[in-house]
Amino acid sequence: MPLMNRRNLLITGAAALVAPPAFSATEGYKIPDHQQARIVRIRDRFAPGEIHVDPGQFALYWTLEGGKAVRYPVGIGKEGRYYSGTFRVGRKADWPRWTPTKNMIRREPHIYAKYAAGMPGGGPNPLGARALYLYTGSRDSLLRIHGTPQPENVGYAVSNGCVRMFNAHVIDLANRVPNGTRVVLH
User: How far apart are the first and last CA of the chain?
Assistant: First the structure.
């Protein structure tokens, strides 16, 4: 058996950090192999420690040193509801409370009006296991990167504007990302 060298240790450790469990402890959903988080090469122009969302690829990238990133599959906003821009993570929450926006209630009152006072975290809550709240300056943009109780929607344009992730992936991302992190929705 070969000795463990530094390179093998680093590669094995990085793979272990990125690979979510086959069954997520938070949702009982087996993430398909083709939708597992992976370390990928990226363009050098992206600074480490940032989040970039590529809506055309349904992918979120957490940038690392050395031109690499962790690539997570995501769901994005429906046509006309995906908002590009530069934001920062203003706060993070575990099993967050959810309240639909006034626009959501106005557009589809038959779906959202009953939740106008909010919904506690957990269970069917649309924000899933974690939420990263995106701010512009000191203002909450009302956009989120969050988990979902509907994992089958990851990889599609189905949300009201937020970026959706598998619960296991958003937990991993939230553990990596500090408040103040730059977020670019391309």
Answer: 47
